[in-house]
Design brief:
The chain is built from four helices and seven strands. It has helices at residues 15-25, 44-54, 92-95, 98-104; strands spanning 7-12, 32-37, 69-74, 77-83, 107-111, 125-132, 135-142. α1 crosses α2 (44-54). The longest helix is centred in the N-terminal third of the chain and has 11 residues, at 15-25.
Length: 143
């Protein structure tokens, strides 16, 4: 796949393609912040699931919509998956200890980053997912 280009569009005809995109990202991403943008059902959590599965994680990978944060530790590699869908005021991120979370992990996936506004660090990669017909489309923007 390669992230050498500033922007790349990828067709995702089915769930398997979204999982594969997540798996391919393990070759490129080892630290940083990834924003996952897109409407409900666009495949944000599926992409994270593909990433984690490729690293060898075989536990449940669910959307952190209600928990806000799901942490993962895989062979010393720490990952946080945040879902800010239910955040109504960005100041709420202080209460969940966002600074500590970001300091203690290598890689952070953030769904619905627009709800965190200025409380979030800048993204290293923004992935925009959209439903397109029966499949999905992903646009990867290297920051």
């Amino acid at each position: 796949m390669g992230l050498e280009k500033a922007s790349r569009r990828v067709s995702l005809p089915d769930e398997g393609a979204t999982l594969a995109l997540g798996a391919n990202l393990t070759k490129e991403l080892h630290k940083g912040v990834i924003y996952l943008c897109g409407e409900l059902g666009a495949g944000k959590t599926t992409l994270v699931r593909g990433f984690l599965r490729k690293l060898g994680y075989d536990g449940s990978v669910k959307s952190p919509t209600y928990t806000l944060v799901e942490p993962y530790e895989i062979d010393g590699f720490s990952i946080a998956h945040l879902d800010l869908y239910r955040v109504t005021d960005p100041v709420e991120l202080e209460y969940i200890g966002l600074e500590d979370i970001l300091r203690d992990v290598s890689l952070t996936f953030i769904e619905w980053p627009e709800r965190g506004k200025s409380y979030l660090p800048a993204a290293d990669l923004i992935i925009e997912l959209a439903i397109e017909g029966e499949g999905r489309i992903a646009v990867l923007n290297l920051c």
